[in-house]
Write a structure and sequence with these properties.
3 strands; 32% helix
Length: 59
Amino acid sequence: MPYQVKSGSFLIVASTLPAALQLYDDMKSGPEDVSIRDMDGRQIDIDELRPILNDGEPS
């Protein structure tokens, strides 16, 4: 399932969740808030999801 990474008016569609997380990390140093949403528009909670993708180890 593709994911949307949004920062201000800039929107990128990533094909996988790990790719979306990488974009999120790259974009969050900017001045705008960054969010990840699924294609239905539901916001993804990064803090809950990251440990799951890192095999249970918090980053």
